[in-house]
Amino acid sequence: MVFASKMPSLRIDQSDLKCKNGCNFFGNPQWQGYCSKCHREQLQRQRWAEKGLTATLPKPVQKKMERSLKLSSHSSFSKFEEKRLRQSETLKNKTNLLKFSVFSKSKSSEIQDQTPERKPPEFKVPATVYEMMKKDWAENFSNLPVQVDRECRVFVHRFIWDVINSSYVMNVDELSERVQRYYQQFIKYTDNSPHLVSAEPELKERLIDFVEKHAMTYLHDLPGVVFSPHGTEDERLDRAMSERIQQLSWVGEKHLECKLDHSNECSQLLYKAISELLAMDGAPFGGGKLAHVRRACLHVLELCGAPASADDLLPKLIFTVLKANPPRLVSNINFVTRFCNAQRLMTGEAGYYFTNLCCAVSFIENLTAESLSMDKKEFDCYMAMPASIGGSTWAAALSLCGAVKEAEEQRQHAEKLMEEIKKLQDDAEQLANNAETFEKEIAKKVQDVLAKTPLEIKPRRELPRLRVLRNSTGPLIDLETSKTVPEEDKQKIPQINIPDKPQDKIDLQFETLNTRTENILSFDMDKSPPKSPQNQPWESKQTGSFELLTPSPISFPLFDSRSIDERMDELMTPEEFGPDNLSLGLSNINYDIDLSDLSGDNSYAEDTPKEPKDPFSPDGIKKEPLFDPFAPQTSNYAILEKFDEFTLVDTKNKDASDSFEVVHRTNDFQTNAERSDPFGPVQAEATSILDENNSPSGACLLPSPLLPQSSKKT
Amino acid sequence: MISIAMATNRSAQRPNGAPQTKVCQFKLVLLGESAVGKSSLVLRFVKGQFHEYQESTIGAAFLTQTLCLDDTTVKFEIWDTAGQERYHSLAPMYYRGAQAAIVVYDITNQDTFGRAKNWVKELQRQASPSIVIALAGNKSDLAAKRMVEFEEAQAYADENGLLFMETSAKTAMNVNDIFLAIANKLPKSEVSTGGAGTRVLNDADAPRASSCCK
């Protein structure tokens, strides 16, 4: 018993003791829970099963199982799965039956001939049907006379009995006619029954539905009677349709020209519609199926939004069907069209929506590239695609899940990248900060260094001093101040020297020069004291005729070096470098030679000009004429000036002032002489070179211009 | 094939029923290109409403409306159809068993009139022979943009024995009139409705069923 099985079995109900078949007799475990009569029937049925006739008779046990399954499953999807299972089960049964079907048909006709009177007693409409009817009646038609209830049950019994019996002999269409005739009869009954005279037409319709529901609910579950009956290809068509829909799963909104906004509401409605369509298979009678279809269509209509006309309904319904892929669709539709009260299908809302569903299915069946208004090739491509790619709803869901997962991964990846970018940005910022602080530090250091080494201050001090000195022309004061800062002077000397001399110089060279010259000079200065015996007499002599020979007293080593540089440079480089490299080479070579030079210079300055000639003469002779025109003039001039200053500051001797004045004069004199003479520069240089080198070789090379000057000087 | 006379006109069968008014129920299909105003026409007829931009949420796909004639009550069950060309082949499913059809076209669009002519031809060939066909030239309020002349349509209607009116769902012009005209033209006798009605469905089903039984 269905209801008994449903109840919690903590206590044994009386109904539990009754026959499993639902007749009101008590059952016996020895008879497998049946009463004696039902047990015998059961045995007989088993015997018939061997003959291949089982399907035509009710199988209470199987049915009960299905029922309980149905009750337990609520979600449309589980139902859907269940239906699939059942479908395959029935298919298995079917194949078994099909083996026999060839002769079972003939057999059944034989049976019809032989045992028309034998069969009716074999079959009995189970009591559950009546119980259900009673219950339903009590709920819905309690105000109607009891006779109607009884008459309805009698009618249902007759109906079921006749349909089952005639299902052996008739094909589906004839059976359909017969069923329709029964409906017709019952309608007539409702119209004519004396008990229903005062009844409203709606009540009568409900009564008709009531009868149909209970008769069909029972018949529906009998395999091969009314639902995908024998002799039809409904099941095969079901599968074909299901495959077709799967294959068409790529068909989307744009193909059907129906627009769906993808809001939550919208998808909710779509899901509702889909679940209604899926539930259609679960409804065991036409009216129930129609109700599901109607509800599905109403959801779809709601989905359509404002102007919900058929123009919108049909495409969206097709879309919904494609997405739902309802199980046993063809069987269901055929069942409804054949065995549902035809009047319901023809008229009324349910009929209209069912027609729409039929149209949708028909459209899907006959779908071509043209009906989707797309390119034939493209369509074929889509159709050739394996269904697993296009996907069923499940495959679609799966691929969706995959896509979601992928999207999530991508998102995470993007997040990581964002983090990295942030890190990089932070690093970059830090780097910028570091750079800034570094810059500041450097600037500070530079400032500190600058502060430590007051480059700017010193020349300022000196210049004013110079001016003051010059203005005031108080040599005594100078001497005193200069004496106070002898070290500074030493430092200062190169600083002043360098910018003036090689103005084109690169800083680096400049620096090296600076330090080197410093060294040199300091060296010179340092070294000079020990040679003071030589120097001092030299300085003292400056005031004398020696001044005329050399422009400045202290420039001696420099001039020497320059001449040396020139030689050196020319060895290595072309003339162009000459004037610039003078100062560079100056340091380089001075180092080696200065000491000797100094001594030499001093010596030759004092004694004879021929002495330095020995080491340098061969070089100097060759180069001098080329060089002289450019560099020496300016450099000489500048140097002279510098040396004036230098001497001014540097000379710690009391005689310096005297010598100074003399030097200035000589400078002026020289420049004047140079300017006046067209050969001035050459002469000046020549003189200088001559002065420096005092080389007879130089004189030999340039005999005419140099000699007279030198002679003049001397 | 057994012909079953099913009463869509049940009041006539009521044995004890008062002879007051018969209630006749008719199925009426709306045919016509999409956007010619089929649903607007029906909404105007059924609800007396017109929404230029159709913000109403009333489903206009299936509607019923009752008209009272002098001795009978006519209940129209109006089935809207999808007008798009691609669904054209499905139309027979809608109009089978229909006792009336309104073929709608847009007077501002010559193409829709051409389609309407096709519908008429098809109905005359395939639908039940007793079907009442009405031709409605909708959007007559847009006469300034008229592309289909009234005379032309009238001549066509006369030729084919159709009811013809130019209607406007917007101004309600001729909307009720055309339904009334149909109601008047429909046979109210039990036999005709029964015969034309229900069994057509099974006739239409027959090919499918037989194809299954090959």
From TrEMBL, chain A:
Bias (Low complexity): 701-714
MF terms (GO), sorted A to Z: DNA binding; guanyl-nucleotide exchange factor activity; small GTPase binding; zinc ion binding
Pfam family of the protein (one): DUF5601
Gene Ontology BP annotations: vesicle-mediated transport
Annotated region described as Disordered, given as residue ranges: 522-549, 600-628, 691-714
Domain spans labelled VPS9: 235-373
Glycoprotein is among the record's keywords: no
Composition skew (Basic and acidic residues), residue ranges: 607-626
Compositionally biased tracts (Polar residues): 533-545
InterPro entries assigned: DUF5601, VPS9, Vps9-like, VPS9_dom_sf, Znf_A20
PANTHER family per record: RAB GDP/GTP EXCHANGE FACTOR, RABAPTIN-5-ASSOCIATED EXCHANGE FACTOR FOR RAB5
Identification of the protein by name: (African queen) hypothetical protein
Species: Danaus chrysippus
Lineage: Eukaryota, Metazoa, Ecdysozoa, Arthropoda, Hexapoda
UniProtKB/TrEMBL annotation, chain B:
Keywords: Endosome, GTP-binding, Hydrolase, Lipoprotein, Nucleotide-binding, Prenylation, Protein transport, Transport
Catalytic activity: GTP + H2O = GDP + phosphate + H(+)
Cellular component terms (Gene Ontology): early endosome
One annotated GO molecular function: G protein activity
CDD domains: Rab5_related (cd01860)
EC number: 3.6.5.2
One of the GO BP terms on file: protein transport
Primary localisation category: other
Subcellular location: Early endosome
Signal peptide coordinates: none
Pfam families xrefs: Ras
Family in the record: Belongs to the small GTPase superfamily. Rab family.
Protein name: small monomeric GTPase
Source organism per UniProt: Danaus chrysippus
